[in-house]
Amino acid sequence: MTGVREWTLRQRVVTLLAVVALLLVGLAGGAVVVAAKNRTHIDAILNKTGPLRVQAQEVLNALLDQETAVRGYAVSGDPADLAPYDAGRAQERDLVAAMQRLLDDYPGIRAELRVVEERAEAWRRSVAVPVITTTEQSGTAAGQALVTDQARAQFDQVRGALENLQSKIIEARQQSAADVRRTSDQLVVLLIAAVAVVVIAGSMLLISLDKMVVRPLTGLADQVREVAEGDYRHGITGAGPPEFVRLAGDVDAMRRKIAKELDEVREARERIEWVNSQLQKQAEELTRSNRDLEQFAYVASHDLQEPLRKVASFCQLLQRRYAGQLDERADQYIAFAVDGAQRMQRLINDLLAFSRIGRLTTGFTEVDMNKVMGDVAGQTEAARQYADAELTWGELPVIRGEEPLLTNLLANLVSNSIKFRRPDVPPKVHVSARLVGDEWEISCQDNGIGIEPEFADKIFVIFQRLHAKDAYPGTGIGLAIVKKIVEYHGGRVWVDTGTEEGTAIRFTLPALPEDVEAATAAADADGPATDGPATDDAGDGDGTSGAEDDGGTTGVPEQATGSGDETDATDGPDRASAGGRTGDMRETVG
To answer: Among 83, 304, 305, 480, which one has the highest count of C-beta atoms within 10 angstroms of its own C-beta?
Structure first.
């Protein structure tokens, strides 16, 4: 009994099903045997005893025809009256032969049939043939004299033999009918037994499943539910087949592991909450410190304007009034002072502009970048005229942002492209845009001196310069302002290091939802020709091979300004030196 209890659920179910299958197979085999017997008995009734009974009656009719024909011929002497006699004999022979073929399983009936044939043949020898012969030879009176009571008694013996034959056939038929009823009853019994086996097996299976599966699983589910509701200390035990006991053990092991990890998580949460409180305090300190620093930078730069303006003004007055009156060294000192005051003024202005980004805001509105480029073209007119530069741009989008900041952004990029030009090569600057996903990617491409890939990330750091001020003047804050404006608008900026000539600075700005929907609809209509919706302007417009934008064109003609020049938007009127190099580095910063 202990061994049975250790059986797995599969072993128990398989054993039960195997026993049921064996019983059903045995019952099915018995049913097949009984059905075969039943079919044999039915065949005996339909195809043997039934035809035998009919044929025996027809044999009697044939003999009666013979007897009637003999008596008729004895009366009339007409040979035509013997036709039924001959036909009856032929029919008798055929019927007997047919009956003989059906009597293999009925020796008693065969014996009775033989008796009938013998008596019929004896009647023909002793009565029929003498009457026919005497009538033919001696006439009807002699023939009728032979038809006596003894002749009739002899034919009655033939008829009695046929009655015995009919009785034997009826007995065989009744026996076959009894066998059919018996085998049918046996089939019904076997069917009832099969149904009983199925019902009993199903009941046992249901009871076993309830006892071995449903109850253990219900108990296990109740325990798991208690754990799921938060009682992770509640131990889980299993009952039933070994699989469920092992399952309960595995679930309990998982519960213990979860409880342990929850304890660790709880401890970690407490530590994280403490760290978060410290970080919040530090964040508040940093916020206050940044606010104070921004305020300090603004106040310092604003308050330094007046004394610095006074220093610069008086230095310029000294330079204009006493230029040439003092010695050469004094003129040089005054020039140094004027230059230093001007650079300090530019630096303070740049710092003031940098500190104002995101702090003094007018709110986001829908800004047409084509109008912004028109303003940028006006601001850079002087620098473009000086450098004989060409500024072009393709169709630009409408985005949400602050128009003054976006104007400052593009003005810085265009001014840098003009300033960092190659000697004896007229600058060409092209601004383009394409839709990538849900962002507009805007590019500023030039044919200038370019930048080495290793310096691509450094140029956006405030005050970062790659060579001396006498090569390319500036404060080193222009591209830091660009980066801060782009990030303030939710985008990113980088240098495309894959251009073959010049510099391509790209930045992203969030696109309006209607632009994204229109691009998606157009892409669905045209088919998946590209990885994502993208539009672009009609190329660089500068004739160079560097940093052309990938993607399709908008099909809108480029706008172009006249040649000219202007300074960096924050640096003032600067001029590029002849070489454009500092050592082996090419610079693109302002």
So the answer is: 480
- Considering 21-35, 321-335, 518-532, the range whose residues carry the highest mean pLDDT is 21-35
Residue corresponding to tokens 């620098």: 383
* SS3 state at 165: helix
The mean predicted confidence, pLDDT, of the chain is: 78
* 455 and 479 Cβ atoms separated by less than 8 Å: no
DSSP, residue by residue, 34-70: HHHHHHHHHHHIIIIIHHHHHHHHHHHHHHHHHHHHH
pLDDT in the model for residue 532: 41
Q: Determine which helix (DSSP H) or strand (DSSP E) holds 402, and give its type and residue range.
A: none
Q: What is the dihedral of CA 329, 334, 337, 338, to 10 degrees?
A: -140
Report pLDDT digits (tens) over 156-196.
888 898 889 889 889 888 888 888 888 888 889 988 988 98
Give the helix ranges, DSSP H, for 46-148: 50-76, 83-101, 107-123, 129-138, 140-146
Pick the range with the lowest mean pLDDT from 293-297, 471-475, 563-567: 563-567
Backbone phi and psi for residue 327, each to the nearest 5 degrees, phi listed first: -75, 175
Whole-number pLDDT of residue 551: 34
Tokens matching residue 214: 């449903």
- Rounded distance, CA 132 to CA 213, Å? 96
In angstroms, the CA 288 to CA 276 distance is 18
Both tokens of 451, joined, read 């930048």
CB under 8 Å to 65, separation ≥6 — which residues?
84, 85, 87, 88, 91
Exposure string (b/e) for 352-382, b if CB count within 10 Å is 16 or more? bbbbbbeeeeeeeeebebbebbeebbebbbe
Q: How far apart are CA 15 and CA 316, in angstroms?
A: 112
pLDDT tens-digit map of 367-399: 999 999 999 999 899 888 988 899 999 999 999
Rounded to two decimals, the pTM is 0.43
Residue (of 168, 60, 57) closest to 112 by Cα position:
168
The rounded distance, in Å, linking the Cα atoms of 412 and 358 is 17
